[in-house]
## 1
Amino acid sequence: MGRAIIVTAIIAAATGTAVVLLPRQGHGAEVRAGAEAGEEHEGTRTIRGATCGIERWPVKTLSDPAARRVDFAVRPATVRYLGSLRANPGGQESRAPLEMRVFSVRARLVGVKREPDSDYHLILSEGGATMIAEMPLTACTSGAQHRYAMSTARAELERALGGPVGESWIHPNLHVRVAGALFFDDPHGQSGHARNYAELHPVTGFRVLTGS
């Protein structure tokens, strides 16, 4: 906070490649290589023919050991409030205390696309603040808690948009209510992130509100 932003370039002369070290953002994680170009970079793997993610994937899909203890009583919140929380992410298969809770927000759905890990990436906007919500592909959630709720939410989004979402951005501008487990992501070039990289991930409830 308040510190000068320093960008250091390290040139590997032997290979002719350049590595750019960006300032720490959000809760302190560094942007991965390539994120400075505004592109999202995250590893994927194939599970039974489906392309799924890797990093903190058990937590992102409610298949981690602590998922059974998540409090699924939905707490109404706002995009701005969730973006103001002190970020404290857990590990690859563990959850921080706030990641044990489920929140819902009312917001404008201003952007949607399918990511390389098959998630639907939603950008939610409310009161000048934005945050991300993510809907995993059902084939990537084997053995997960609340798998039906995740699948139903994704199907509701597809119904609202008239079909499956592709890899290019669409901008529905729908007034929606979205519920999901709170998750603190690391910066990796994602679009529409909250200041603290808080997300609703995975989404367990989705509804288009009347009047959209």
## 2
Amino acid sequence: MLGPVTYRILALACAMAALAACATMKEPLQQRTTQGPAAEEFWLYRVVLANGRQPNFEERRHWEDDIDERIAKYLRAHPAAANSLDVSTFRFFRRAAVGQTKDQIAILLGPPQVTTTDPAEMEKLARKFWPDIKDRVKEAWAYPLGWYVYFVDANVVEITQYLEP
């Protein structure tokens, strides 16, 4: 026969196990944001995927020099972008953001995995956010880690992310 203290300890252990089980059952990440992924995040993802390891100092320095040069070249060719209020997001933070152009996104994030102009396909990508954005978007680019960038003409108007746990 177990004593009352033992029952309490057993009940506490069961409650803790149930809490731990609930904590591991997360829902997918779904977000709609004005600032998307950073260029470095995608670069690291691609290096680790390709090599199975983190980049070394030399590889990181080479990437930083390369992206700085591509950004500087773009800004020299587009003085209006160089003088915009959002230039720091592009140049210093190297982060995709609403208002940027397709060229800027391509410089920061690289080529997309998938592009689409089909409304039915964009609805699948946008999931729960589709009713809010369907009248504003004409094209979508899909990137790793569940990131989707939506355009009207050449400008980003929406960014969403859907990532399974």
## 3
Amino acid sequence: MSESASKSRTSSDPGLIASEYRRFVVVISGPSGAGKSSFVKELLRRYPSDLVYSVSATTRARRPHEAEGRDYFYLSRDEFRRRIDADEFVEWAEVHGEWYGTLRSQTDRVLQSGRNVLLDIDVQGGRSVRKIYKDGVFIFVLPPSLADLEGRLRARGTDSEDRIRLRLENARREVALVREYDYAVVNDDLEAATRKVAAIIEAETCRASRRANENR
């Protein structure tokens, strides 16, 4: 190919300009009861082909409305420990007396398929994920107030009084760490807050540094 032909192709071939963007991990964190699950459901509805929820593993007992592989991978403590020792988790932590973790195989599979990964994890997990996926997008969902959060937890009717107190204590500690995240969104109105989170993801998708053909 001649030099002139090469220059012509470089300046006119849209495939070279509109290149693919590298996919990334989106981490949604926040206190229990802040509405993270609602964000996840709505984001997956809006972006069914571009965003995939990474199902976590847990030692927590399955609730009646939950399904294996859809809500969690339910593991015994012995199996969970085996996977820790085998370095199969991107992150794992003990939360409210149970173990939760994100399987590395799940996140890598989605990223390699050309889609973004959505994680709903706690602050401890977010720290671990950032060490591995440094270009991830980290969003913290805040309740309007701790009083509002307590009301939501009680309205769910799934936790004992001791568990509610534990969740509130953990919420106070987690909210104090919000500055570790890239974005903070207050969930005082689910529709408005979801629009903000969606706008964050769309903007991050177009970040110039994510262009797949960029030399780094």
